[in-house]
Each structure stands twice: as C-alpha cells, then as structure tokens.
Amino acid sequence: MRLDVFGLFVNDMGTMIRFYRDVLGFEIKEDENTSNVYLIKDNTLFLLYGRKDFENMTNRKYEYLKGINGHFEIALYVDTFEEVDIEYDKAIAKGATSILKPTTEPWGQRTCYIADPEGNLIEIGSFNKPFER
Q1: DSSP three-state, residue 5
Q2: What's the rounded Cα separation, in Å, for the pair 50 and 10?
Q3: Integer CA distances (angstroms), 14 to 28, 41, 54, 60, 108, in order
Q4: Which domains does the chain have, with CATH numbers?
C-alpha cells in the first residue's frame, strides 16, 4: 500500500477551494462546482470532499468538529525563517485566521499556525535550510 491522497471534508466547497488556491497557492484540477475536488501542492494530491456528499455516499450521518480543529494539522515547509514570516503575513492579509504568530522554537524551527475558513490548522515552518526528504 502507498499513500495516494489526503483530503478534508468541507461544508462550503467554493470558499475552501478559493482559500487553498488563492491564499496558499494550491493548483486546482477540476471545476470548483463539484462534490470533490483535487488540488495539487508540490506534487502532492489534496482532496476536498463535500461533507454532505460523503454522508450520502456512505448512507451515514457523521458529527464534525466546529471551530478550530485540533485533531490534525497540514504542514507547509519553506526554506528560510524569513519566508515563514512572509508567507504568514501573506496568508493573514488574504483572510486566513491567525492561531500562532511566527515564533522560533527551542528545537530550532521557526513556525506559525493559521486556520482555514472551516478551522483546520495549517502550520508554516522552516529549519532555515532547504527541505530534504
């Protein structure tokens, strides 16, 4: 088995597509008027799936968190500490919710947190060097 895609269940598809495309720079693969949309960031597939559509498909009702979702995070890496601050400021200027302003942590990472329109946590961080796998 290998990881194929990771996704979020969303209430407002249009708002979420515009956030990930226009605020964070994800590339959209489909029209935004569908029940599931693939976005790409750095060759990684990211799926937005309508919550109601998923419930209809599985014939089940689910309970979803409201407010800030602290169950997981999406982490985005930049090469320099300066880029953490720049990307944070750009995201906030475009409507992201600030959770934690850029901070240099004791373990050597500069990090910050924002939230998307439905409260999912997004980290922007760097160890002040290019990303290595």
Answers
A1: coil
A2: 5
A3: 12, 18, 17, 24, 37
A4: 6-58 (3.10.180.10), 69-126 (3.10.180.10)
22-49 confidence digits (pLDDT tens): 999 999 877 777 888 999 988 888 899 9
Length of the chain: 133
- Residue in the block written with tokens 């960031």: 41
Per-chain mean pLDDT for the chain: 92
Q: What kind and span of H or E run contains 44?
A: strand 44-50
pTM above 0.85, yes or no: yes
Tell me the three-class secondary structure of 96-111, residue by residue: CEEEEEEEECCCCCEE
Q: Per-residue b/e over 4-39, b at no fewer than 16 CB within 10 Å?
A: eeebbbbeebeebbbbbeebbebebeeeeeeebbbb
